[in-house]
Specification:
Layout (H helix, E strand, L loop, with lengths): L5 H12 L1 H6 L8 H12 L4 H14 L6 H14 L5 H12 L3 H6 L5 E2 L2 E2 H18 L5 H21 L11 H32 L3 H14 L4 H14 L4 H16 L2 H4 L6 H16 L5 H9 L13 H15 L1 H14 L3 H9 L7 E9 L6 E5 L13 E5 L6 E2 L4 E4 L1 E7 L4 E6 L9 E2 L20
Parallel strand pairs: 5-9
Antiparallel strand pairs: 1-2, 3-4, 3-7, 4-5, 6-10, 8-9
């Protein structure tokens, strides 16, 4: 903020050395020896801005109508830039005085070949640069400060190509360094314009004025569609102020994702800020969506457009869960029905639910997996599990089927089947629902014939003898 660039600093230093000589070659004249001494002392004290400002104050009081009034204002501005801490409001005050009179007229009029000992075009560039960047950095900047800074930034962008020409390039500078200096000036001018555009929103943000900050950041983004800073600030405002609005939240995620996908060198953000913004985006996205699936795709899409397409929406975790539940019910209607019954039975009022609604009531057909038959052959009791699709074996039995008569064989373990039954009893811990059913209503349960037990060792097989 205190200097334009390394190149411009070296040029400014060289100009200051010849200030009085250069000034003496112009039609401007000091009024008397006293003015000359004050003028000269101000240059000598340039390394100490506080002393320099005191010199300038004395000069201004004693010679208010000096022919070097413009030089003096410029020197005031430069001294304020060098103060520690800097004085951006004062920089804008003095820079505004110069800009209010048309810089071209001030610096190109008769007798103005040198101003404050610096090349004319460099001085113009320095004024615009200083005003633009200080307006962008000034806390609680007033509207007139912002307007002045925005004007300076636009003029700086227009003036930079005229200044950074081969004719103005110092002899000891390479083309690459000269071009880099121009790129740096233009980049900072654009960054200042963005920062100034965001100032009203930042002020409203500090006041927690949601409508004002949303409006201000939306306007900034409309004016600077490729600004990551504007996109980020607008997104944060939407998240902060409209968290209950699905549409606003989706747009907020789009804008924050966009801010991470743009080149920070041209978007008003600094590269060092991106990791923090990335982490914030991921945290907010997961809190809303329930996971980071789709996040990379969102960043790619948002990087290509400043606003989301019509109908764009990030599904919430609740919406995804509801969709999965609907899909699950469509694909597994019997399992879904049992999960609903089991959930109510396992609830605090499970016993009341059983007694009031389930006991002795006919139920639709259920589907489950046989865990154990009692006894294994010709059983009258079956222990059944109703596992979820991704459940791991061994399954835990949760339903006991009491048959009206023994089965005619040995049911296969882990066999899936369906049945109809009537709830007869229930225990919550351990969980078990007992149902009465008919062996004839078991559908799909495979059985094998019961084998005759093998003869015990030491016994003889008895055969019937034929009568003669």
């Amino acid at each position: 903020m205190r200097n334009l660039s390394n190149i411009l600093r070296r040029m400014a230093a060289a100009g200051a050395v010849c200030a009085l000589v250069c000034a003496a070659q112009t039609p401007k004249k000091v009024k008397d020896q006293g003015e000359y001494d004050i003028y000269n002392q101000a240059f000598k004290d340039a390394a100490d801005p506080a002393k320099e400002i005191a010199d300038l104050d004395s000069w201004n009081q004693k010679y208010p109508d000096s022919e070097y009034k413009d030089d003096r204002v410029y020197m005031y501005m430069q001294a304020c830039l060098k103060m520690n801490p800097p004085q951006p409001a004062k920089v804008l005050e003095y820079g505004g005085q110069l800009m209010s009179r048309d810089l071209g007229a001030i610096f190109n009029g008769p007798g103005a070949e040198q101003l404050a000992g610096l090349p004319i075009e460099l001085t113009m560039l320095n004024v615009l640069y200083s005003v633009a960047l200080n307006a962008a950095s000034l806390p609680n900047a007033a509207a007139d400060h912002l307007a002045l800074g925005d004007k300076a930034a636009h003029q700086l962008l227009d003036f930079a190509p005229k200044y950074f020409t081969s004719a103005n390039k110092p002899a000891n500078q390479t083309d690459a360094a000269w071009n880099a200096a121009r790129a740096d000036v233009e980049s900072k001018a654009k960054a200042a314009m963005i920062a100034i555009a965001l100032k009203p929103g930042v002020v409203a943000q500090a006041r927690k004025d949601c409508p004002a900050q949303e409006s201000a950041f939306a306007k900034a983004l409309a004016d600077f569609q490729d600004s990551g800073a504007a996109a980020y600030q607008y997104g944060v405002a939407l998240i902060t102020c409209d968290r209950s609005s699905p549409e606003k939240v989706s747009q907020a995620l789009w804008e924050i994702a966009r801010s991470t996908s743009l080149d920070p060198a041209r978007s008003g953000l600094e590269a060092k800020d991106l990791p923090g913004i990335e982490a914030y985006l991921k945290k907010i996205y997961i809190s809303i969506h329930g996971g980071d699936d789709g996040l990379e795709q969102l960043k790619s899409q948002a990087g290509a457009a400043p606003t989301p397409p019509a109908g764009f929406k990030i599904k919430t975790a609740a919406e995804i869960a509801a969709e999965k539940q609907v899909d699950f019910k469509e694909k597994n209607p019997q399992l879904a029905m049992w999960m609903g019954i089991k959930g109510q039975l396992a609830d605090t009022n499970g016993e009341q639910y059983f007694q009031g609604q389930l006991k002795d009531a006919a139920m639709p057909k259920l589907k489950g997996t046989l865990v154990e038959a009692k006894p294994a052959c010709r059983p009258k009791e079956l222990l059944v599990a109703v596992p979820l699709p991704d459940a791991q074996k061994p399954y835990q039995s949760e339903i006991t089927l009491k048959l009206d008569k023994p089965m005619a064989g040995k049911p296969e373990s882990d066999g899936e089947f369906q049945w109809e039954g009537v709830p007869a009893a229930f225990t919550k811990d351990p969980f078990m629902l007992t149902m009465d059913t008919e062996a004839a209503k078991l559908d799909g349960l495979k059985t094998t014939p019961c084998t005759t037990p093998a003869a015990r060792p030491g016994t003889k097989k008895v055969t019937a003898s034929k009568k003669k």
